[in-house]
Amino acid sequence: MHEMEVRFLFIFDFLHLPPGLIMPFVVTGIIATVAWLMTRKQELIPTPLQNLGEVAVEELETFVEGILGHKHAAEFAPFLGTLFVFIMTSNLIGLIPGLRSPTATFTDCASLALMIFCTTQYLGFSRHGLGYLKHFVGEPLWMAPLNFPIHVIGEISRPISLTLRLFGNIMGEDVVIMVLMLYLVPWILPLPMLALAVFTSVVQALVFTLLSSVYFAGALGESH
Question: Where are the domains of the chain?
Fold first, then answer.
């Protein structure tokens, strides 16, 4: 009975596809539509929507520049800014009745984390060649047999940590809100939890983006 009630809450259930597969496309469509509305008719004196978009872009560029430095900010701000917006939207969309958070699905979180992991390794080897392996060897050189496996394990733990942190927080808040809505007084008792969930959703998107920026900075050889 309870399973049927939970399934009924998902408006795309008629497609017979898992939410983790459907919702990323929904989130992408929402972001693309909002971005198009912000940029379709740019004015010298910006409209409120255009002004919101410009402020968001400037703040995200400043955020990335503070970690990667001015040299790499222009190169990576679009990617990391898009990552932040996508994760934040994915976190928040699950608060809308009938929809689910893609980030409440383990495989979606793991995909994002693996994307960051692969990009980090690509940046390291493409910018430094085999010299990037020095990052794993460490100093002094005679400690390499000990440092290398430790650094490899630390590198592998990064996507695991990113996945579990994002999935655990978003899945946890979605489950708590669902329980409150199903078994307690709807629209009254869940309100404080909804407010906390909004805050947590933004923070988790910020933390994921922050850590991704730090990983990129390490691969690029920056130490900001």
Answer: 2-220
Q: What is the DSSP letter of 189?
A: T
* Number of neighbouring beta carbons within 10 Å of residue 6: 13
Q: For 94, phi and psi rounded to 5 degrees?
A: -70, -15
CA 72 – CA 205 distance, rounded (Å): 21
Q: Which residues contact 158 (CB under 8 A, 6 or more apart)?
A: 113, 116, 117, 120, 211, 215
pTM for the model: 0.85
Phi, psi of 41 (to 5 degrees): -140, 80
Residue 57's identity, in one-letter code, is V
Q: 197 in the Ramachandran plot: left (φ > 0), alpha (ψ -120 to 50) or beta? A: alpha
| Eight-class DSSP state of 15 | G
Per-residue confidence band for 188, with pLDDT thresholds at 50, 70 and 90: low
Of 8-22, 81-95, 192-206, the one with minimum mean pLDDT is: 8-22
Using the predicted structure, report yes or no on whether residue 122 has a pLDDT greater than 70.
Answer: yes
